[in-house]
Amino acid sequence: MNNEAGNRKLKVAISLEMDWGFNRHQETFAGCHAYAQKAGWECQIHPAPDRMLTSSGKLPFDGILARVTPDMAKAAKQAGIPIVNVWMNTPAKGVPSVFADSALAGRMAAEHLMGRGFRQFGFLGHQRDIDSQRQWNGFSEALRSHDFTASHHRFPRVSVEGVAPGWERFIARLNRWIDSWKTPIGVFVTQDIYCRYLIDVCRSKGLHVSQDVAIIGAGNETIVCDSPPPTLSSIDFGFSRIGYRAAELLDDLMRGGVAPSSPILVPPAELVPRQSTDVYAADDPMVTKALRFIAENSHHRIEVKEVVTAVATNRRSLERKFRQFVGTSIAGEITRLRLERAKRRIVETDAPMKDVALDAGFRNADHFYKVFSRVEGIPPSQFREEHQKVFLQE
């Protein structure tokens, strides 16, 4: 692909607040450049492309990729230059946008914690941010589908940023929220760094991570996640794919394409499990051991008898305990985890359904099709059509 106007390379401005050292910005930038290199663009990093548009008689760019501010959106519209936004919380309205699917991230967190056997849940997020609200929506909806609810605590982002003007109030309210918990509890946190704040307060109360509190963050900021112990389980949004898809959309708009009527949502890359959720919670040690075995082996073609053997008990006793402490049968839990694995691959890839079935641990595609249709109420192909937002070239 060579995207040129005559013999001139297309010029694209990139404005992503690169001085913020988060994956969100660095990886989005890398994804933009991966597409730009393929397209043959000439890219320029610029913190305020709107000022160049309004101060120059000649248009300096053919398109803009940015965390779009209202001034940028206004200047681009007046200049007739395509612009694509990757900032979910922007005040600018009606701008073509590409975002992480935050609701799907919330569902992934809920399924991970339920798969670990938790039956009490919490969410720590921002008061007004759209991405935090969507994380909560996906998290709570996934829990409700299994008849669970979650406690939630919201705080203003500005209270803990910079010199943290609201730090003391934030910690005091966090303490009161934690005092309301019934443990063991699984908690989803809107951003990795806040997991560290939560862990510090939990430790001050004598709560152990992960036995008393299992925690999942969002963003997979590896420096924050990997130290100090415990390491943090986190949602990796795959921001490079968001940048790539945003550049792909800009290319289409510069060619005269029509802007999509709603933001393009890119599924998270994966949930990266680490020490903060390395536990299987149940009020019975046999059930806990069985849950661990199922979670680690459900993608293989295991049967109930293998779970019973791993726990070293009899089937009737273990089935009774599963009904009591988990609310489902052993086979039902195996199927649930297999379906969740399959659903993620259906949404995140364009793999053939036969491969999806085998990867999730079903014996063949026909069996997978029947089970999926019975449990979800629709066939796998329809689920993909309804839930898959975009497939990206890596």
Automatic annotation (TrEMBL):
It comes from the Bacteria. The keyword Transcription applies. The keyword DNA-binding applies. PROSITE patterns: HTH_ARAC_FAMILY_1, HTH_ARAC_FAMILY_2. CDD domains: PBP1_XylR. Residues 288-386 form the HTH araC/xylS-type domain. SMART domains: HTH_ARAC (SM00342). It holds the Pfam family HTH_18. SUPFAM superfamilies: Homeodomain-like, Periplasmic binding protein-like I. Coiled coil: none annotated. Keywords: DNA-binding, Transcription, Transcription regulation. Gene3D superfamilies: 3.40.50.2300, Homeodomain-like. This is DNA transcription repressor specific for xylose. It comes from Haloferula helveola.
